[in-house]
Design goal:
The structure holds 2 protein chains of 2 kinds.
Chain A (H helix, E strand, L loop, with lengths): L3 E6 H7 L1 E6 L2 E8 L2 E6 L13 E9 L2 E11 L6 E3 L4 E2 L2 E5 L2 E7 L2 E5 L1
Antiparallel strand pairs in A: 1-11, 2-3, 3-4, 4-10, 5-6, 6-7, 8-9, 10-11
Chain B lengths: L1 E7 L3 H5 L4 H9 L34 H9 L6 E6 L11 H18 L7 E6 L5 H11 L5 E7 L12 H9 L4 E4 L20 H22 L2 H4 L5 E4 L6 H15 L10 H8 E4 L10 H10 L2 H4 E2 L12 H7 L5 H13 L9
Parallel strand pairs in B: 1-2, 2-3, 3-4, 4-5, 5-6, 6-7, 7-8
Helix pairs in contact in B: 4-5, 5-6
The chains are: A mainly beta, B alpha/beta.
Chain lengths: ~120, ~350
Amino acid sequence: MKDWHDIGGVEELDRDGSLIARIGGRDVGVVATPDGPRAVRNRCPHQGGPLCLGTVAERLVGTPGHYRLGGTTVLRCPWHGWEFSVESGHCLDDPAQRVATYRVRVHDERVLVEA
Amino acid sequence: MIDTDIHVLIDPEQLLGYVDPAQREWFRSRGLGLGLPDCPWAHPVSWFRDDAEHETDGAPTTSVGAIQRQVLDAYSVDIGILNAADGLAIPLVASSYRALALAQAHNDWLREHYLDQDPRLRAGLVCPAQDPQAAAKEIRRCANDRRFAHVLLVGGSERPYGEPRYLPIFEAAAECGLPVAIHSGGEGCGIAASPGGAGPPAFYIEWHTQAVAGSIMAHLVSLLCHGMFERLPNLRILFMEGGIAWLPGILWRLDTNWRALRAEVPWLERKPSEVARDHVWFSTQPLEHTNGNDALFFEMLEAIGAPDILCFATDYPHWDFDDPQHVLGRLPESWRSQVMHGNAATLYGDRLGLVTA
C-alpha cells in the first residue's frame, strides 16, 4: 500500500539539488527541476548508477551544425550520461529503458514522496 | 577480482616535488597542466563520473581514499592496477627531455602517494616513448619495484609500435618480465599522428568511436606484421580501452591478407591470429552495447579465443566506466572467473604477488 514519506526539507533540496531516501527497500530520490521537484528511483537501469546524483539539464536538440535547447528537462545519469525524462522516467534515447517515477509534493517546507 | 584499469590524475603540486630540480620551475611556469598537450576533442559534459571525487572548485581529482571507497572496497577487488590519466599524454610531449622528467616524476610520485598506501594497488609505469632509448632506461630503473605491473604506452603515437624505432621499449619490457599495456587515448594530440586516416574528426563522439579503437587496431596489426613476437617470444601485450567488438573482424581480415601477402612479411610463419592468441590480451572496458545481440557478440568473440584473453577493467573514474556486476551479468557464465580474475593472473604471472595454489 502506498504512503507519503517525508524525505527531507525544501531548503536541503534547494541547497544540494537532490534528496535521497530508502523507502521499502529501494533508494528513491527527488531532484530539483525548473518545474518543481520530481521523484525517481535512484538507480539507473543501465548499470545501476546513482541516477539522482546526476545533472538536471535541458535536453539539446538541433539540425546538422546547429544546436538548440529543446525544452525538455532531463536527468542525466552521473555515470554514462544517459538522459531520462523526469516526467515519464523513460530514457529518451532508448525508450525500452525506464526508471520508476513517484508522486511528490511539498508541505510545510518538507518534501513528501508517495511510494 | 582484478581490475586492470583504474585511472590516476596528477596532483601538480605533489608531482613537482619529484621533478628534476633543474626543470621544476619550467614545469611550474606551464600552470596546472604541466605542459601536457591538450586534446582537441572534449566530452560534452565531463570525462569523469559526476559521483567521483572532485575538488571544491569542480576540478576532478583522484585519491587513494576515493579509489578504496569507490572501487577496491565497493567491489571486493583483490588487485587494482593504476594507470595514468593525464599522464598518458607524457609520450606526446614535443620535448623528449621534458617527457623523461615528467615520466620519472610520475613513477616516483605514484609509488609514494598510491602504491605505498594500499597493498592491493599496482601500477603501470610511464615512459617517454618519443625517445625509446630513454624509455628503456626508465623501464629498467623502475622494473625492480614489482608493484609496477606493466609498462604503459598510449594509443596516440608518431608511428605504429611495431616499427623498429620502438624496439628498445619492448626489449626492455620483455627483459624485465613486464607486459606492455597499450592504452587508447591521445590520438591526434601533441606529437601523435592525426587519427583515422581521413583527417581529424570534428566531434568527441567520432574520436571516441573510431580514433581510440583505430589506434589499437593499428598497433595490433603493426606489432604482428613487424614480427615483434617472433623477435621477443616472451613479450606480452595488453590492449586497453579500445573496445573488442571489432577484434574478430580485424584478425580475420589480417589472416586473409596474410595468406596472399605473406611474402612481404616472411617472418610471419603462422597465421597472425594464432600469434595474437599467444601474446595479446584485451581489457573488457568499454564493453560495447550490441542492441540485443549479445549471444552473437560472445559467439564471435569466442571464435577468436576471448574467454582466455579478456581481462576485466572498470576504468574508474571515467564516464564510460564499466560496473563489475553489469559486466558479470553479460558475460557467459563459463567465462566469468577467467575474465574477472584468471586471465589477468596468467598475463601478469607472479608480478601481482598473488598467492597461488
